């Protein structure tokens, strides 16, 4: 949409500059710039219309196409030939009259869509922000639960290891004091 608007503004500006140009070489160079801008607007308009086929936008797309065709036809078949013949005043009257009105209508439709696109972008940005926050909260909760599980496992293993180490130290202490260690008595079939 923005490229369309830029191309349309460039096309209009160059046609007006062309009308004020005294040198024919300058007018021909301006004509090449008009053609480039026309290709840009034509291509972007076709893409825009193809992507906005909804029922709500059908009338506006038809109006946009019609405005663009009338704008281009008047420019190419009336204004530019007048400029090339040296009749700049007549060309300027036409460019500042009906063409300006078409330009304003075309840009008004584009502005409406720019506002709509900005609103949709704001909604998407808000949705992404909410989902990002939820993801951070979930990630934090999972990390916290993992840390708690790791701490619990460490405490359990430490207590178990400490208990076994205490028994080993008790045995070492008994050995150093000269007490006889109790021999475990076999139980079950090994006792026979």
Summarize the structure.
The protein is mostly helical. The chain is built from 5 helices and no strands.
Give the ordered list of helices and strands.
HHHHH
Gross morphology is rod-shaped
Number of strands: 0
Strand content: under 5%
* Helix percentage range: over 70%
> How many alpha or pi helices?
5
Report on this model:
With 192 residues, the protein is mainly alpha-helical. Helix content is 86%, strand content 0%. The chain contains 5 helices and no strands. The longest helix has 80 residues, at 98-177. It is rod-shaped, with a radius of gyration of 41 Å.
How are the secondary structure elements laid out?
Elements: H1 2-20, H2 24-51, H3 55-84, H4 88-96, H5 98-177
Tags for this entry?
0% strand; mainly alpha; rod-shaped; 5 helices; 192 residues
